Amino acid sequence: MIDADHALRVPRNLHNGRRFMGEPVPFVQGDPGMKMRFAAVATAWVLAASGLAHADQPGTDWIPADQVIQKLTGKGYTNFSKVEADDGYWELEADLNGVRYDLHVDPKSGEITKSEPDSD
Question: Around Cβ 52, how many Cβ atoms within 10 Å?
Fold first, then answer.
């Protein structure tokens, strides 16, 4: 508990020297209401963060991941990894001519929409 010297003080009324709205209002460290509010906010943040950490789910009209890999194999890509649905497209890593690439693939046509050398 905080002593009276560290309590939040209400301004004095300058006309009569008395406190404007009463006595000091101490901050009680064990305030159960504050703990409950903190727990609620912390829980909300954890739930929001955990939802962002998971990859998206493929749409019902998307071609399956194995068909995407089959199409890319036909174009010379090998050694596929990290195949997941993300932000409306298939995202994966694969090798082409000895270079590792980050790929984004259209989920309906199976065509590559982004191909960049992997920076990891």
Answer: 7
Domain spans, the chain: 4-53, 65-117
87 burial type by CB count under 10 A (0-12 exposed, 13-18 middle, 19+ buried): exposed
* Each residue's pLDDT tens digit, 94-110: 999 999 999 999 999 99
Q: What is the mean pLDDT of residues 39-50?
A: 53
State the number of CA atoms in the 13 A half-sphere of 102 facing the CB.
6
SS3 call for 119: coil
Please say whether the beta carbons of 115 and 106 come within 8 A.
no
Whole-model pTM: value is 0.54
User: Residue 83 in 3-state DSSP?
Assistant: strand
